[in-house]
Amino acid sequence: MSNILTETQRVQSQAYKDLLAYVVTNTISGEIMAVNNYTTMVPLIDDVDEKIHVVKQARDEGGHVNALSKLAAHVDFPTMKGMVEPQWKEIGRFVKERAREGDLTACIIAQDIMVETFATVAYTALQRNTDKHTRSLAASIYLEEVAHLQHGVDQIHRMLDNDAEDVHRAFEMAHKAVMPAMMSMVNYNCFSLCDQLKIKCSTVSLGVIEQDLDQLRIDAIDTYMEKIDRIGLDPNRVAPLFSSLVDDDPSKWQPKNKDDISGISCCH
Ligand SMILES: [Fe+2]
Ligand SMILES: [Fe+2]
Fold first, then answer.
1. Ligand (nearest to CA of 64)
2. What is the C-alpha separation between 227 and 179, in angstroms, rounded?
3. Domain containing 236: what range?
């Protein structure tokens, strides 16, 4: 008898459900952070049409949280509605701090460019080798994330025309604060996620949906660099920042604030 599982057997296996629990709960955390980030940004926006647009983006992200939670109930895997991993808390804190300083530019770069880049890559990955319910939801969320990313690119492009120095300053600051944390999220070495979901770290493995994490990180860097090029940032100023993305080992990322780790440390 062949050892190759049929699609039905594979998606009903415990390993598949554990992996989806891990990925989808992490994605829900990112979506909750996005709701927080957009609502933090809204009071800083003077233009009423733009303000309304960002409120709509916050509502989109809230819809993603609820749709992903429903998916979990339907496909039957555990999930949580909360921000579990410390990276999300650190990125959220960066956006809050910059908002407190009135630095809307850094907030837009962090959320609309950096976080949304990873969102598009994550929802592309969730359309590969998954079940039909997950594929179809990931495809519809993907389209909204692409629109958020494009909106951010257009906004920063306009801001660059007005004050290039301010955009480069904000970009450098956001890159250093957000990108190492985002890169480390593309990893199966969680801090406490498996523990909180009551799944075994060892069952969360690449083989189940044949995702190549190195390739996912490369896809994220490619998308990021393409958007930076599209915005029109000065290559001489941004190029030195990119080397750390390629050279750093993402599993080495550690939270600055130990209180950000909830639950029992598991896979690290
Ligand atoms: Fe989203
Ligand atoms: Fe989004």
1. 1
2. 14
3. 7-260
